[in-house]
Amino acid sequence: MCGIVGVVSAKGKDIVGDLLTGLKRLEYRGYDSAGIAVITNSGAIDTRKAKGKISCLEEKLKAEPAKSNIGIAHTRWATHGEPNEINAHPQFSELVAVVHNGIIENYAALKAELADRYVFKSQTDTEVITAVITVNLKEGMSPKAAVSSALKRLKGAFAIEVLFADHPDFLICARKGAPLAIGHGKGEMYVGSDSLALCPFTNKITYLEDGDWAIITKDKAEIFTADDKPVTRKITTSTTDKNSVNKGFFDHYMQKEIFEQPKVITDTFANFKKAVKGLPSDLKSVSRISIIACGTSYHAGLIAKYWLEDLARVPTDVDFASEFRYRSPVIADDTLAILISQSGETADTLAALRYFKEQKVKTLAIVNVTESTIAREADFMINTLAGPEIAVASTKAFTSQLILLAALTLKMARERDAISAQKAEEIEQKIADLPKVMQDFLSTSGYIKEIAKDKVLGAQSALFIGRGTSYPIALEGALKLKEISYIHAEGYAAGEMKHGPIALVDNGLPIIVIAPFDKYFEKTLSNMQETMARGGEVIFISSAKGVETKVVKDFAKAVITMPEIDDFLSPLLYALPLQLLAYNTSLLRGFDMDQPRNLAKSVTVE
Ligand code: M6R
What residue ranges in 153-283 does DSSP mark as E strands? Predict the structure, then answer.
């Protein structure tokens, strides 16, 4: 989603390069236009905007350079109004320039109210912020009063920065429902959507609390609460390493992140042992678990349901955050709510967390970004150690969420005497062995590119099927393929095929069958045969025992042979070929899989 950056420096310095550096750090969030605003020596707002990539904005700046000691910048992921230069941020008047991440829900009412006092140029919701502040200034308010009064009129979620033509020595920023961080430099201050945007400049970060706003000069941040009371927020030392965000020897972030999985699994599992203090002490008395998440994190939650119910015997519900927050869930006493989020900023998941907290339900966050809002607001937090995940398609965050959920399942199973200590230790040993198994598979996986080329590249559509924990893996495989290769794909529980989706099968439809050699194997094989009988072309994924089955040998159009793995851990391993299938299909189709069209990494609006 949109990303924002701001820099205030000493007179005479030029911060335009810093604004672009910060913006590039936010590219991973997904965007379709970009822009900057600075204040000229003569006290005018000066903007450059471009549709498309930051490189297009750089071209504009090359043709018509801008220079200033103060400025704001933005990457826009369009919500209101198509991606074009007029709708790109900053939205500005002769007095102010505004960048915004979020959605102003009452923009239509404000726009109507201000129509005779402000000439609106864009289709954006953001322009009403510019309008309200401009009108306030024209009515004689100071910048501080103009912003404070405007904030009280805005409904919805926002993180904003405001630049004033007549005041080249400060900017004002605010957050409500969307994240915002302040970076403390030496004689220079920064504002950004996250610590990744700020890490090229400083690791001294202040995270604003919800409702806070701040006046930023080159030396300090003066912070106020939503009701305008001065407040001190602590300065933390961010662990985000500016060198951690590079592709290394790989061509793409997604490829690098797929190959990092053995390491992040190892690190995350080791961290679980240390992070146990991040868990409620009375896991034994938990009567029900409610898992809430979106997208890939939701798929991790679905797998955890199988595990928690099977091994720890805890009833477990899994909901999409966007559905959960608007229905009237019945929440049992002693429920533990688990919120899963890579970014820790997903708007719907955050809303669900706040709902649980209002209901006095214990909340546990499983997040990758430890400084995120969800991490900070949950009662308990355990973090995955995936490191920055830059590609929009989640890979290493998914498997590291799974390893944490597996470790949590084992801990709960033990505490509730649902499995013996010996059985738990056996599984723990298999978890310890898993990174090597993953590594061995990855290092011989080059042939998956050929399968992508021969069997998926030309397809209009694809089906992924599996049973047990391979069903959420089928959902995840389909999500990966559709989000980066733009091929329509569906994941189904293999047993559900006959209840409708089999009608879609005709000659040449690729059916990706995820079939570890487990208790479901024979049943999945029957479902596979039903699709083949109708022309489906099967890509069969199983261990040697599975792929050597006669019917597979005789009829599957392609096979991916997986190492032997304990049934419990199979989803962690079987995720890999599906990630590679999607990656290679996208590569062969010539798409930018790191920044797929229309998608944002951090979904901070609902
Ligand atoms: O940061 P989160 O884990 O809360 O994000 C949830 C989804 O937006 C995310 O998993 C999304 O589905 C990815 N693009 C999947 O690859």
Answer: 156-164, 167-176, 181-184, 189-192, 204-207, 213-216, 221-224, 230-231, 236-237
Task: Give the distance (Å) from ligand 1 centre to CA of residue 352.
Answer: 16
DSSP letter assigned to residue 590 = T
Instruction: Determine if ligand 1 sits within 6 Å of the CB of residue 349.
Output: yes
Q: How many CA atoms lie within 13 A of 490 on its CB side?
A: 13
Pairing between strand 510-514 and 488-493?
A: unpaired
* Topology at the third CATH level for domain 246-443: Rossmann fold (3.40.50)
Cis peptide before 90 (omega within 30 of 0): yes
297 lines ligand 1 (CB under 6 A): yes
56 is catalytic: no
What is the Å distance from ligand 1's center to 296 Cα?
A: 5
Give the per-residue pLDDT at 557: 94
Residue-level pLDDT at 449? 97
- In this chain, the answer to whether the domains covering 246-443 and 444-590 adopt an identical fold is yes
Cα–Cα distance, 21 to 33 (Å, whole number): 16
Q: What is the 599 CA–ligand 1 centroid distance (Å)? A: 10
Q: What is the pLDDT of residues 175-200, one digit of tens each?
A: 998 889 999 999 999 999 988 899 99
Q: What are phi and psi of 49, to 5 degrees?
A: -140, 155
Active site residue 294: no
- For ligand 1, whether the C-beta of 294 sits within 6 Å is yes
392 lines ligand 1 (CB under 6 A): yes
Q: Ligand 1, closest atom to CA 321?
A: 4
Q: Tell me, what's the pLDDT at 193? A: 92
**Measured distance CA(398)–CA(292) in Å, rounded:** 15
Shortest CA distance to 183 belongs to which of 170, 195, 174, 172?
Answer: 195
Which atom belonging to ligand 1 lies closest to the Cα atom of 600? 14
Q: Is residue 604 within 6 Å of ligand 1 at its C-beta?
A: no
Rg (CA), the chain: 25
164, pLDDT greater than 70? yes
Average pLDDT, the chain: 93
483 close to ligand 1 (CB < 6 Angstrom): yes
Q: Could you give phi then psi for residue 79, rounded to 5 degrees?
A: -120, -55
User: Is the pLDDT reported for residue 244 higher than 70?
Assistant: no
The residue contributing the CA closest to ligand 1 atom 9 is 295
Architecture of domain 444-590 in this structure: 3-Layer(aba) Sandwich (3.40)
With the most atoms of ligand 1 within 8 angstroms of its CB, the residue from 318, 343, 368, 369 to mutate is 343
Give the class (CATH, top level) of 3-237: alpha beta
Question: From the candidates 51, 256, 482, 601, which is the catalytic residue?
Answer: 601
Contacts of 499 (CB under 8 A, 6+ apart): none
Sign of the dihedral through C-alpha 143, 148, 154, 157:
positive
Per DSSP, 269 falls in state: H
Whether the CB of 296 sits within 6 Å of ligand 1: yes
All structural domains of the chain with their residue ranges? 3-237, 246-443, 444-590
CA pair distance 357, 363, nearest whole angstrom: 7
